């Protein structure tokens, strides 16, 4: 006789919109929370709904969409964000954006601060890599991808997509090819609590950012800077554009880089460029 062992699905891996909303509390009172078992990309879903003229799908309020499993997660410039089923927190927050469009370049930095400070409340110390990654011990734990869409009524929406690794099967790690980190099990014991806390921090961040821009986040970001004072390379499609000592970010979110021989630091804008520690 063959005995088939079916692993019980841990209740911890099932997200509940009602519990997430309750944990998010009053800071996210105006936010709707939706949970789906599986989707391609939570960012793509929300962007499509913002742009859609179909009233039944339209977003009337800031909306958090969380997917238990995301099958076609995205990074910057068409890169892929890969996760195994139920082994990551993958979610996006769509927010009607009231600040000027040009301030958006600083938003991933503010969101990084919100994630790092929330994880610290869960006992997890992380660092930030300019412009949009969350690292733990030099390994990528979470990614941030912010995209925008304009609704038929001309309202601009920012869609803040976040993926946080909870586990990384060996095969997937090989596929990604770069070192990754996963959240310690204790921090993700109650995923609804973690997601609710992140939503609360993100809602506060979005409001603060709309009112005062990046100013409230610059010092906090620099305290969390993964490569402060270290030699780094700025790469464009694998080619070194700049090399120097990473000092931190300025008031609009550019990375200040002290190049060899330069009298004052140069300021790098986040386009589709990548940063690497020099010895990587
Ligand atoms: P770079 O690290 O070069 O600056 P990036 O930070 O812009 O790039 P993103 O586009 O945000 O990277 O994310 C996609 C990249 O992240 C992929 O090319 C891959 O290297 C890596 N990656 C994909 N999935 C994961 C994951 N689950 N955990 C950690 N890293 C991942």
Automatic annotation (TrEMBL):
Query: Which EC class does it fall in?
Result: ligase
List the SUPFAM superfamilies: C-terminal domain of transcriptional repressors (SSF50037), Class II aaRS and biotin synthetases (SSF55681)
Query: Which residues are the signal sequence here?
Result: none
Q: Which UniProt keywords apply?
A: ATP-binding, Biotin, Ligase, Nucleotide-binding
Under Enzyme Commission nomenclature, its number is 6.3.4.15
Q: Does ATP-binding count among this protein's keywords?
A: yes
Reaction equation(s) it catalyzes? biotin + L-lysyl-[protein] + ATP = N(6)-biotinyl-L-lysyl-[protein] + AMP + diphosphate + H(+)
Q: Which InterPro entries match?
A: aa-tRNA-synth_II/BPL/LPL, Biotin_CoA_COase_ligase, BPL_C, BPL_LPL_catalytic, Transcriptional_repressor_C
- What is a GO molecular function of this protein? biotin--[biotin carboxyl-carrier protein] ligase activity
User: One Pfam family for this entry, by name?
Assistant: BPL_LplA_LipB
Q: Which PROSITE patterns match?
A: BPL_LPL_CATALYTIC (PS51733)
Which segments constitute the BPL/LPL catalytic domain? 29-210
| Name this protein carries in UniProt | biotin--[biotin carboxyl-carrier protein] ligase
Species assigned in the record: Collimonas rhizosphaerae
């Amino acid at each position: 006789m063959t005995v088939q062992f079916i692993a019980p699905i841990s209740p911890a891996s099932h997200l509940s919109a009602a519990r997430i909303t309750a944990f998010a509390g009053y800071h996210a009172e105006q936010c709707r929370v939706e949970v789906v078992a599986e989707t391609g990309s939570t960012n793509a879903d929300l962007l499509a709904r913002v742009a859609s003229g179909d009233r039944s799908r339209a977003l009337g309020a800031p909306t958090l969409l969380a997917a238990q499993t995301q099958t076609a997660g995205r990074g910057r410039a068409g890169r892929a964000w890969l996760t195994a089923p139920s082994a990551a927190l993958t979610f996006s927050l769509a927010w009607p954006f009231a600040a000027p469009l040009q301030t958006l370049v600083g938003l991933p930095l503010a969101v990084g601060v919100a994630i790092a400070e929330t994880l610290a409340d869960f006992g997890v110390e992380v660092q930030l890599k300019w412009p949009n990654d969350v690292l733990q011990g030099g390994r990528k734990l979470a990614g941030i991808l912010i995209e925008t869409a304009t609704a038929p009524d001309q309202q601009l929406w920012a869609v803040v997509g976040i993926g946080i690794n909870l586990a990384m099967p060996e095969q997937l790690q090989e596929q990604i090819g770069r070192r990754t980190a996963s959240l310690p099990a204790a921090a993700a014991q109650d995923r609804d609590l973690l997601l609710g806390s992140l939503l609360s921090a993100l809602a506060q961040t979005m409001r603060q950012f709309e009112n005062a821009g990046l100013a409230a986040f610059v010092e906090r970001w620099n305290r969390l800077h993964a490569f402060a004072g270290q030699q780094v390379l700025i790469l464009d499609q694998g080619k070194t554009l700049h090399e120097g000592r990473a000092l931190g970010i300025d008031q609009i979110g550019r990375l200040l880089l002290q190049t060899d021989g330069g009298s004052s630091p140069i300021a790098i804008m986040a386009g589709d460029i990548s940063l690497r520690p020099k010895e990587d």
